[in-house]
Amino acid sequence: MHILPPVRPEKSIERLTAILEPIAEQVKVVPRKRITWAYKGRQQMYLFLEGELSILRAQDGLLLVTVYEPHLFGIAEMIQPTQGHILRAETESTILRVDAEQAADLFRKEGAWEDVSALLSYHTAYLIYRDAQVVQQRTYSVIRNHLQEMILLPEEARMRTTILDYIQDRTLLSRSSILNVLSALKQGEYISFKRGGYLLTLGNLPESF
């Protein structure tokens, strides 16, 4: 069964963004630029406004999620600065940088901790969703899950990332195991992709293969 991702708390993100924008500093980020949680020795939060931004696991660079819509990063790091993740711009992106202590003070003054909790719960739920996609799953199931995720991306994003790169960036699967499954799915006419391996269409994939 395909597990659906958690629902983004849109209203909470909008309210928190409105609270932080007046004290935020706008930063233009070039593609592939990595963004750390500290700036001038102080913990930061980031408001992602436009572009394409990914969260990577710091220890090995495993890609956890890529976002395309406005979002707020740094809630968990503000409370528990473990430095376990980093941000990376995939395209030229616009973000707002905010000192985490100032952000926490504003949240208290504005009574916004319910919105903070909603966003933190969403992030936790997303990590659980992602684990369900890859942990203790058969190779085919992992690939199937990522193909179903990939077809929902904006077409521009799909045409920038090959199926192989998309899955390898997000899993520990080998190149050969991914290509073997893709070849079988193409022969079965479940999938089509253009030269180079860019996903075009995806049919109703079987539960097992």
- CATH level 1 class label of the largest domain: Mainly Beta
Number of domains: 2
Radius of gyration: 19 Å
| Biggest sheet overview | 5 strands, antiparallel
Distance between the termini: 14 Å
Shape annotation: elongated
Estimated helix fraction: 40-55%
The named CATH superfamily of the largest domain: Jelly Rolls
CATH A-level architecture of the largest domain: Sandwich
What are the low-pLDDT stretches, counting only 5+ consecutive residues below 50? none
Q: SSE order, as H and E?
A: HEEEEEEEHEEHHHHHHEE
Determine the mean pLDDT. 92
Might you state the CATH topology name of the largest domain?
A: Jelly Rolls
Q: Work out the number of β strands.
A: 11
Number of helices: 8
SSE-based structural type: alpha+beta
Percent of residues in beta strands: 15-25%
